[in-house]
Write a structure and sequence with these properties.
Helices cover 68% and strands 0% of the residues. With 402 residues, it is mainly alpha-helical. It is globular, with a radius of gyration of 22 Å.
Length: 402
């Protein structure tokens, strides 16, 4: 069979289901590993590896996979805006606004992690619930039939509540109370910084593979220079998620993958595309092996080896799912997790509400559900429950857009 004929088996050649599916699976895995704190007697390799330890667990590959997927979506998003008539400056403005919202969300949620419930007279789960409700009101796409003044009022009220929450915030230990601050930006904030650089690069690269590859190589090299302590000190004003190179390198790896994908997709050549992707993955694995002896393999250190290895893992997963979902037309196999790929931000926020509900209601699961294999099934069921709730809220009209 010729290479070009393979792609003709796709049920809808204009739709790339695999990106949404990989995003959905990553989000389900993220909720799953984030729930492991509630369990005991489970394999250590499922969780995060401690700071300073050379190695990674399953939980340590989820965040980089998500960053990579953010990059996968960027060229498609930029192309869609250009088709609508947006200029480059208008798209840059969109990237700046989206970055600001991600940073805002990340900072509020990370402050919730160090909240002093006694000093605040407010438990952490209440803080998280209020913040998440405000995020939804600010970001929700209301129906066209909704009263515009009411919608504007809700958004302004939500922002006012967030400002008030930041003003009254108290965190840290009793002997060292801290005020509201960025801290380490939180997961969403880190995504925001990587998205900012990768988004701007995508806009001006205009899907030119050599340009995107060069920008990716720059940040991969920057990751190594940063860990070798060779980055000039006068650049310290640049946020570490950018200056460190690793996080942006992960996102740009996704951008590079998509522009290569588009090149071969236009030529209906899945075979050569797959060979190129496997070659890229092999190359990244080799780079991980080469750099690991110098700086280790660690998520918490955001080391170059972690960047390369996790990029390879995600690319292999994407390629596999692309053949299953897009080439062989089996996307329906993944329908159970589909809402997590199309309403990802909403799905990410659902666990905050779920944990708050459990705390407020005083509900406690029996011990046998919190240990060993049964506990792991519980955490998987919890992740799927969050997806199911996301689907229901989406049908009810809750659709976040940033």
């Amino acid at each position: 069979m010729k290479a070009t004929s393979v792609s003709k088996t796709m049920t809808n050649p204009d739709r790339v289901a695999s990106i949404d599916i990989v995003r959905a699976l990553t989000m389900v895995l993220m909720i799953f590993v984030n729930d492991l704190w509630s369990l005991s007697n489970i394999p250590e390799w499922l969780g995060h590896v401690a700071r300073g330890v050379d190695g990674i667990g399953l939980a340590d590959i989820v965040f980089p996979a998500f960053l990579f997927i953010v990059g996968l979506s960027l060229p498609h998003a930029v192309d869609a805006r250009r088709k609508k008539g947006d200029t480059d400056w208008q798209i840059v403005q969109h990237v700046l606004v989206r970055t600001a919202i991600l940073l805002l969300m990340g900072v509020f949620l990370v402050n919730g992690e160090t909240l002093n419930a006694t000093a605040m007279s407010m438990p952490r789960h209440v803080w998280n619930t209020i913040c998440c409700l405000c995020f939804i009101l600010v970001s929700n796409v209301f129906p066209l039939s909704a009263n515009k003044n009411v919608v504007l009022g809700l958004r302004i009220a939500a922002l006012a509540v967030l400002v008030f929450m930041a003003f009254i915030y108290r965190g840290g230990a009793d002997e060292n109370i801290q005020r509201f601050a960025p801290q380490w930006w939180g997961i969403l904030g880190l995504i925001g910084w990587a998205y900012l650089v990768s988004g701007v690069a995508t806009i001006f690269a205009r899907n030119r593979i050599p340009v995107v590859a060069s920008v990716w190589a720059f940040f991969a090299l920057l990751s190594m220079l940063y860990h070798a302590k060779l980055v000039p000190g006068f650049l310290s004003f640049i946020p570490e998620p950018i200056l460190g190179g690793t996080l942006t390198g992960l996102t740009l790896g996704g951008v590079l993958t998509t522009v290569i994908f588009q090149y071969y997709r236009q030529r209906q050549d899945n075979i050569r595309m797959t060979l190129v992707f496997l070659g890229m993955a092999a190359g990244w694995i080799v780079l991980s092996v080469i750099t690991r002896p110098y700086w280790g393999l660690a998520k918490l250190g955001a080391t170059p080896a972690w960047l390369f290895l996790c990029s390879a893992f995600t690319l292999i997963a994407l390629t596999t799912i692309y053949w299953i979902a897009d080439v062989w037309g089996k996307a329906k196999w993944f329908d159970i997790v589909k809402p997590a790929g199309t309403a990802t931000l909403l799905c990410y926020l659902i666990p905050y509400f779920a944990y708050a509900f459990m705390r407020t209601a005083g509900l406690h699961l029996p011990d046998f559900l919190l240990s060993g294999g049964i506990g792991l099934l519980k955490s998987l069921a919890f992740a799927l429950l969050c997806v199911w709730i996301t689907a229901g809220l989406t049908r009810a009209g809750v659709k976040l857009k940033i």
